[in-house]
Amino acid sequence: MFEISRSVSALGSKDSLDMSFSEALQSIYGFGDRLILYWNNTVLEVYIKYDLSVSWRDIQKMMLDLKSKKEAFSLIWPSQSFWGAWNFSLGPDDILSVVPNWSQPIQDTLIVPRKSFLVEWEKALSDIRQDLISQGYVLNELENY
User: Which residues pair with 34 in a beta bridge?
Assistant: First the structure.
């Protein structure tokens, strides 16, 4: 089982000095704002302000690899509070295997349909983009978008 929900308090204001997507995330999200990942029977928290903002490019690459049905690839989470790597392999019947190697207390492999994993991430990332737009950001004007 894999699902993503989120917990977000009131959004902060746009910082006119922000040049990148990552900076914009750090401006509008608070320290406790997070994505909640339901990974098999474990709940994991990815903080948007820092964990997600420093991993943004890697997440975008993951999304492209998933959409193109790449057979094997990795995602590196460089954040100090959510450090690790996910190793992906696509098997028969479009079933995705995600083997984690990280600082989290759980190490079990996630087996999930590729499409359902992709849909969960697309919704979470769409919500984040909408938050930025609602605060006045023009996404394609931000570096690393």
Answer: 7, 47
pTM over 0.85: yes
* Digitized pLDDT (tens) for each residue of the chain, 145 residues in all: 999 999 999 999 999 999 999 999 999 999 999 999 999 988 889 999 989 998 999 999 999 999 999 999 999 887 767 778 899 999 999 999 999 987 666 668 999 999 999 999 999 999 999 999 999 999 999 998 8
In DSSP notation, 69-125 reads T-SEEEEEE--SSS-EEEEEEE-GGGEEEEEEEESSS--PPEEEEHHHHHHHHHHHH
For residue 144, give the DSSP letter.
T
User: What's at 21, amino acid-wise?
Assistant: F
